[in-house]
Structure formats: structure tokens, C-alpha cells
């Protein structure tokens, strides 16, 4: 696992990771102690929601992702000197570029934590949700420009006769990285709405990244993956603590704060760690959910404010939620997309003689319910998390055995 080509002392290599690991364990126990003590403060501050998938109608504190987000950042703030101890003590060749990367990553995550909490409090519009991650990623992109400014991509083998071995994307590479930050922060947010799903899927993604980092520690880019581990370990620890209270029946809601924090954390390690394409592979369910949701997100098909599954009080099960509209109200593009979806049998479409259409809301959650029928909330969450695990396994298959078909690995 450890790269010996650099003549690094094994203890000096593993020491920061061990310190980070033990700090993360402490933060896990602090998380599970802190949340029960302060959750009522959120209700008093009117930061609560009603779980629409329960009979009780009790107030559930919302935006508790800000608590784990703060603990996550505190862990990393306290950890800052550890990787640089030998340079500080010996006063030799301080790696300012690595220090800048660490601080830029923290700054971007801190910005998204703030903006996510602002969204939970102020209920920002979608155009703001697209703009704010772009702004928050600017420190990250600037550090990437100063330290690397590498915009070359290796062309897959089948395309090299036409494009050559590599292509310089120039400014479009930075546009891609900015869009990656926007996608990661919003992708988790739109695949949400049932207890434990947001935290569960984020944990599976983070554990997948962690495993990938451990595998790649023996490669030439081991420092980038060591950097990623510094972020993933405390993130996993604090998120596990949050999942304990967000799992069915949820005692707290995580809010957009947690989704934004998670997305930006994944974007930071993917960009600075030079494995953004691999990071996207771990987002396969989120990508599918986004593509499936595009007709409603861009209003080609009418989109209600909430697309959560519908709760049936009699059966205590979740059913598909629907949008009802007049077929005349949708554009030609919307009708064409609906026709394709109906041919592919991935939409439940009912139309009466007057042209009134009832169709399922276009989310992966509703699609699963179409295929399985109504089910209890924890069972639905487990199925969706199983899909996430299978997708991560597929991502590793693509990244290692199949990658050799397209690249030299």
C-alpha cells in the first residue's frame, strides 16, 4: 500500500492518517452526543419540518447537517498542522502548494456549508442553487490553476486516430470542473426525500472514494490520495453519527446543508486529487436520476414543488407521486420526451378523453416504486442504497478491468 519509491519513512507516511483516523472516531462520538442535546434548539428557532411520510405529524428539527458540517470542519482545522509537522519542526522546504490546496478545499467546503444553511433558512430559488456552488468552487479552481494548470486530457484509444494521444481543453477544462462542483452539490439534493437516503447514499459514495484512495496509495499519485483520505475519514465519521438520527423513523432532517456539504467535499477531493472522472463513476444513480428528472427540472413536463413519494396512511406504505396537467400545456419537446419514455416503459402515463394527463414524477425513487409497487419507507431506502452499492461495484469494474480497453493503465 505504501509507495517506497520516494524513500518516505513509513511512520511519517502513516502518522497523519492515523491521527486523522483517531480524531474522526472522537468526532463520531461527539456527533452522537451533541445532536440529541441541541436538536430542540432548531425547533425553537422554527427550523423544523413535518415528516409527510408518517401518521404522527410531529415536528422534526431540520438542517442538522450544519452540526455535522461544523464538526467535520473543526476536525480538519485542528488537523491542519499535522501533515506539515516535519516541515515546521525542521524548517525545510515547506510545501506551500500542498498547504494552499488544503486551505482552498476547506474554504470551498466552508462556503457551501454556509450557503446550504442559508438555503434551509431562506428557501433559495433553483437559479441560486446553480450559481452559488459555482462561486464556492472558485478558490479551488484558482489553486488548481496556480499549482497545476494542466488542461490536457488523454484521448481514449479508439479515438486517437482522429484526435491524437491528448487534447488540450484549455478554459473548457475549468468549466468542466466548475460544472462538476455544481452537479455534485445538487445531485444528492434531488435524490432525496425519504429517511436516511441523503446520508446513506453520501456514505456509500464516500466509502467508495476511501477504498479507491487506499488502492491508489501504491501509485505515483499517492500524495493526492493521501490528501483525499484526510477529508474522507472525518466526513464518514460525522455522517455515520448523523445517520443514526436520520434513519427511519427520523429524529432529525439533514436539510440542504448536508447535501451541499457532501457534494462540495466530493468535488474537492476529486478535483485536487486528480480523479474527477472516477468520482463521477461513483455518482451513477445520481446521474441516472438527474437525466430521468431533466424533463421536469427544465419544465418540458410540468413539475410540482414537491416530488416526494405519496404516503398512504391506510397501508403505511409509500406510493408513486404524480403530476396532473393538460396535454395541451406541454411543448412539442415535452410531448416528444414523453413519447420516448412511454416507448421505453419508464413512465406511468394515463390520459383521459379530455386530454388530462396523470404521470408519475420523474425521480429514481418513483421509478423504483413503479417497478416494485408500494412499499414501506425503510425498505425503499434499503433498495435505493443497494442500487448505490451495486453502482459503486460497477464503477470499480469500469475503473480497473475495463479501463485498459480505453487507456494505458
Automatic annotation (TrEMBL):
<feature type="transmembrane region" description="Helical">
    <location>
        <begin position="199"/>
        <end position="215"/>
    </location>
</feature>
<feature type="transmembrane region" description="Helical">
    <location>
        <begin position="102"/>
        <end position="118"/>
    </location>
</feature>
<dbReference type="InterPro" id="IPR000715">
    <property type="entry name" value="Glycosyl_transferase_4"/>
</dbReference>
<keyword id="KW-0808">Transferase</keyword>
<dbReference type="GO" id="GO:0046872">
    <property type="term" value="F:metal ion binding"/>
</dbReference>
<dbReference type="Pfam" id="PF00953">
    <property type="entry name" value="Glycos_transf_4"/>
</dbReference>
<protein>
    <recommendedName>
        <fullName>UDP-N-acetylglucosamine--dolichyl-phosphate N-acetylglucosaminephosphotransferase</fullName>
        <ecNumber>2.7.8.15</ecNumber>
    </recommendedName>
</protein>
<comment type="pathway">
    <text>Protein modification; protein glycosylation.</text>
</comment>
<keyword id="KW-0472">Membrane</keyword>
<keyword id="KW-0256">Endoplasmic reticulum</keyword>
<dbReference type="GO" id="GO:0016757">
    <property type="term" value="F:glycosyltransferase activity"/>
</dbReference>
<dbReference type="InterPro" id="IPR033895">
    <property type="entry name" value="GPT"/>
</dbReference>
<feature type="transmembrane region" description="Helical">
    <location>
        <begin position="227"/>
        <end position="245"/>
    </location>
</feature>
<feature type="transmembrane region" description="Helical">
    <location>
        <begin position="130"/>
        <end position="150"/>
    </location>
</feature>
<feature type="transmembrane region" description="Helical">
    <location>
        <begin position="63"/>
        <end position="82"/>
    </location>
</feature>
<comment type="similarity">
    <text>Belongs to the glycosyltransferase 4 family.</text>
</comment>
<keyword id="KW-0460">Magnesium</keyword>
<dbReference type="GO" id="GO:0006488">
    <property type="term" value="P:dolichol-linked oligosaccharide biosynthetic process"/>
</dbReference>
<dbReference type="GO" id="GO:0005789">
    <property type="term" value="C:endoplasmic reticulum membrane"/>
</dbReference>
<feature type="transmembrane region" description="Helical">
    <location>
        <begin position="257"/>
        <end position="275"/>
    </location>
</feature>
<keyword id="KW-1133">Transmembrane helix</keyword>
<comment type="function">
    <text>UDP-N-acetylglucosamine--dolichyl-phosphate N-acetylglucosaminephosphotransferase that operates in the biosynthetic pathway of dolichol-linked oligosaccharides, the glycan precursors employed in protein asparagine (N)-glycosylation. The assembly of dolichol-linked oligosaccharides begins on the cytosolic side of the endoplasmic reticulum membrane and finishes in its lumen. The sequential addition of sugars to dolichol pyrophosphate produces dolichol-linked oligosaccharides containing fourteen sugars, including two GlcNAcs, nine mannoses and three glucoses.</text>
</comment>
<keyword id="KW-0479">Metal-binding</keyword>
<keyword id="KW-0328">Glycosyltransferase</keyword>
<feature type="transmembrane region" description="Helical">
    <location>
        <begin position="281"/>
        <end position="301"/>
    </location>
</feature>
<keyword id="KW-0812">Transmembrane</keyword>
<feature type="transmembrane region" description="Helical">
    <location>
        <begin position="170"/>
        <end position="192"/>
    </location>
</feature>
<dbReference type="GO" id="GO:0003975">
    <property type="term" value="F:UDP-N-acetylglucosamine-dolichyl-phosphate N-acetylglucosaminephosphotransferase activity"/>
</dbReference>
<feature type="transmembrane region" description="Helical">
    <location>
        <begin position="13"/>
        <end position="35"/>
    </location>
</feature>
<feature type="transmembrane region" description="Helical">
    <location>
        <begin position="380"/>
        <end position="402"/>
    </location>
</feature>
Amino acid at each position: 500500500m505504501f509507495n517506497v519509491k520516494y524513500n518516505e519513512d513509513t511512520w511519517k507516511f502513516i502518522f497523519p492518517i492515523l491521527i486523522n483516523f483517531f480524531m474522526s472516531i472522537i468526532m463520531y462520538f461527539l456527533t452522537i452526543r451533541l445532536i440529541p442535546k441541541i436538536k430542540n434548539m432548531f425547533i425553537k428557532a422554527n427550523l423544523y419540518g413535518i415528516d409527510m411520510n408518517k401518521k404522527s405529524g410531529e415536528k422534526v428539527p431540520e438542517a442538522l447537517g450544519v452540526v455535522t458540517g461544523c464538526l467535520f470542519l473543526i476536525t480538519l482545522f485542528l488537523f491542519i498542522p499535522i501533515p506539515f509537522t516535519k516541515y515546521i519542526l525542521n524548517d525545510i522546504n515547506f510545501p506551500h502548494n500542498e498547504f494552499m490546496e488544503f486551505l482552498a478545499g476547506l474554504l470551498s467546503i466552508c462556503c457551501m456549508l454556509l450557503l446550504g444553511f442559508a438555503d434551509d433558512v431562506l428557501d433559495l430559488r433553483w437559479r441560486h442553487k446553480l450559481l452559488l456552488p459555482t462561486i464556492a468552487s472558485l478558490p479551488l479552481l484558482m489553486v488548481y490553476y496556480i499549482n497545476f494548470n494542466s488542461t490536457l486530457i488523454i484521448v481514449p484509444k479508439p479515438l486517437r486516430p482522429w484526435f491524437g494521444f491528448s487534447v488540450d481543453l484549455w478554459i473548457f477544462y475549468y468549466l468542466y470542473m466548475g460544472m462538476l462542483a455544481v452537479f455534485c452539490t445538487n445531485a444528492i439534493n434531488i435524490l432525496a426525500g425519504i429517511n436516511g437516503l441523503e446520508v446513506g447514499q453520501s456514505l456509500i459514495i464516500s466509502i467508495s472514494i476511501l477504498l479507491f484512495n487506499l488502492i491508489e496509495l501504491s501509485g505515483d499519485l499517492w500524495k493526492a490520495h493521501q490528501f483525499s483520505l484526510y477529508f474522507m475519514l472525518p466526513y464518514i465519521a460525522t455522517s455515520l453519527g448523523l445517520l443514526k438520527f436520520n434513519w427511519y423513523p427520523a429524529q432529525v432532517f439533514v436539510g440542504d446543508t448536508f447535501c451541499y456539504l457532501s457534494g462540495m467535499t466530493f468535488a474537492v477531493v476529486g478535483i485536487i486529487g486528480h480523479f474527477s472522472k472516477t468520482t463521477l463513476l461513483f455518482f451513477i444513480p445520481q446521474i441516472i436520476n438527474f437525466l430521468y428528472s431533466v424533463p421536469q427540472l427544465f419544465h418540458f413536463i410540468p413539475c410540482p414543488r414537491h416530488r416526494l413519494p405519496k404516503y398512504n396512511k391506510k397501508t403505511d406504505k409509500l406510493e408513486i407521486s404524480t403530476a396532473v396537467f393538460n396535454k395541451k400545456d406541454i411543448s412539442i419537446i415535452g410531448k416528444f420526451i414523453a413519447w420516448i419514455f412511454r416507448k421505453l416503459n419508464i413512465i406511468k402515463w394515463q390520459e383521459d378523453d379530455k386530454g388530462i394527463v396523470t404521470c408519475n414524477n420523474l425521480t429514481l425513487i418513483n421509478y423504483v416504486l413503479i417497478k416494485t409497487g408500494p412499499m414501506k419507507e425503510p425498505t425503499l431506502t434499503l433498495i435505493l442504497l443497494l442500487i448505490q452499492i451495486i453502482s459503486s461495484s460497477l464503477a470499480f469494474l469500469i475503473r480497473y478491468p475495463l479501463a485498459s480497453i480505453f487507456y494505458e493503465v
